[in-house]
Each structure stands twice: as C-alpha cells, then as structure tokens.
Amino acid sequence: MNDSLDRVLVIVPAWNEQANVGNTVREIRERSAGLDIVVVDDGSTDDTARVARDAGATVIPLPINLGVGGAMRAGFTYAQRHGYDAAIQVDADGQHDPAEIRHVLDGLEHADISIGARFADKGAYEVRGPRRWAMLFLAGVMTNVAGTRLTDVTSGFRAANHKAIEQYVRYYPAEYLGDTVDSLVAAVHAGLTVTQVPVAMRPRAHGNPSQNPMGATVYLLRSVFALGLALMRPRKTTRGTTT
Fold first, then answer.
1. Nearest CA to 33 among 109, 101, 79, 114?
2. Residues 110, 79 contacting (CB under 8 angstroms)
3. 67, 104, 139, 239: least surrounded by Cβ within 10 Å?
4. Per-state percent for the chain, helix, strand, coil, to nearest 5
5. Mind listing the pLDDT tens digit for each residue in 192-213?
6. Transmembrane region positions (predicted)?
7. What pLDDT does residue 208 have?
8. Which of 7, 28, 128 is nearest to 78 (CA)?
9. CATH assignment, 8-232
C-alpha cells in the first residue's frame, strides 16, 4: 500500500443494509488489517447499526436518511477531526471488493483523488442501455474537465488524501449524483488532481439493484442535468472563497 499513508479510514455509508454490512466490515478487516472502519448508518430503520458494531466497526448514526452524499460528508468530517491521512469509501452492499482497497489507495501516490474504475479492462462488470450511455457521456466530459482520462466517474469506490478530505468537508453535495459527479467537478475546480485505477466489481450479495429500462432512462436524463449544474457552479478554492 501507499507507504506515505500512516492512518487510513474506511468509510462505509449504509442505509438498511443489515443483510450485507456485517460481512462487508468483516471482509475489510480481513483484507485490510490496520485500517480503521467507520460505518455511517444513514437513518436506517433496520438493524444496520447493531450489525456493523457487532462486526467491529465504529458507527456514526444519523437521525434521518440524508443519502450517500450526506453520509459521506459525515464520514469525511470524522476523518478530518481525527487526523487521518486518507479516507476511502467502500459501499456496504459488498460490490466493492475489499481486496482492491490497497490498490485504489496506491493511486494517491500521484493524485489527490483515486477512483476505482469499473470499466478499465478489469473484471466483467457490465452496464447496458441508457445507463451505460450516461456513464460514457459523463466520463467524456469529466476527462476534459480533469485533464486526465477517466472512464468511470460515477464509481463510489474512491480514495481521498488529506487535501481532498479538507475539500470534501467544505463541499460535498447531497443532491442526486452529487457524491460522484458534482463532488469531482468541485474538487478539480479547487485545484485537486484525479486519477483512476482499474478494479473488478462484484454482484450485490443481498437485495436487488434498482435497474430497469425506465429507471435507466431517468438516470441518463438526471445525469446530464446534474453535470450541467455542477459545471455552472462557481469555482471554489480550498479556502472556501469562489472565483
């Protein structure tokens, strides 16, 4: 793993994931010994918090459901206050393989943000139809914005160094796709650098993903809208002023 990182926090946002979060936490502990784990229980109505705590994670309970963006901002705030060198998001549903954590962290050797990319010639993860078109469109635009080739800007499997954590605490939107596209645009506008590393994704262990033709079409339209809003926002510096 990146030898410059002494303390790394794994942030696991979780909403009603009692069937998955326990195995996810245990697998992270087995695969990435020495990393601290915090599960942000995003207003779950099931036993997500208890299961995560029993598996060995620190739990931040949110009183209401804020969405992934709100949960991650809480996690980054925790990382900042406790002086972590880096933080990495791992979803609770088991799709992010903990065996890839150290690989994604290695990307921080030459960038402030490292994205675990699902469509970079590794693994068999596939998305088709309008959802795939939206991902390709977003990746093309973000490649130009970031000045480096990016193939999967909606991946939540991403790591942030100390500078990026500071930026995320100041601005990490909770709106739809804000945790991925909007946060990335804001980070680049603040002068942070981005890279990606190929990762293999796994199928969801329990529960069903919300993908159907109608949902995929809505995803396409909302993605374009979210990106347009992100690009129109004023640039922000890491000191909180705008340009």
1. 101
2. no
3. 239
4. 45, 15, 40
5. 999 999 998 776 666 655 555 5
6. none
7. 58
8. 7
9. 3.90.550.10
